[in-house]
Hints:
By secondary structure, the chain is of the alpha/beta class. The protein has helices at residues 14-17, 20-27, 63-77, 95-104, 120-125, 142-153, 204-213, and strands at residues 2-7, 32-37, 50-52, 59-61, 83-92, 107-112, 117-118, 129-132, 189-190, 193-194. It has 2 domains: 2-153, 3-Layer(aba) Sandwich (Alpha/beta knot); 163-213, Trp Operon Repressor, Chain A (Orthogonal Bundle).
Amino acid sequence: MKIHIITIFPESFGSYLESSIVWKAKEKWLFWVELYKLNDFSDRTFRHVDDKAFWTHGQVLSPEPLSKAIKHIFEKVWRKIPIVYMSPSWELLKQERLEEFSKTLKEFVIICGHYEWIDQRIIDLYVDFELSIWEYVLTSWELASMVFIDSLIRFIPEVLWNPDSLDEESFSKKLFGKKEYPHYTRPREFEWIEVPEVLVSGNHKEIEKWKMNNLK
């Protein structure tokens, strides 16, 4: 999987891309990220990339630098690839949708908005998927992009130590879209609370029944 990210603040991805499972997946070349600083595509003084929105008090990312950045990526990869725009106003990202994206999005661009929005004409001309991680507004949509990437790359083979965990986790098809059952580990008793007896019984049929009865 190849991900191109257009952002004002590429440095904000540093610690995320260099830690834990994400870093290990990158080291194995299971996925690849390239960052593009939006200001590098601006012709304005001080490389400004935003302007005041018409009839509102907010700032909006201008269409010219965004368009140049997108065309630059298309020329670089020799073709048009899907464009994802993270915003608070459109399709709410869910597990089932992520499973679909993991099969279809092999190389794509993420636009990280900032300030209020991006110019609507960029959405009309280029954006294929406008995604929201939930019903709230962020100052920086780099955070939303990291959430999207993190939830997406988990479906790449070999990223997770135990890929079977994908089959039975919160919101998965096997759990009927519900949240997972409670989890326990050693010690069997902690602060006078014991692990449910069925989980240490070795009776797989009863354990499966307990798990299904304890979905949230």
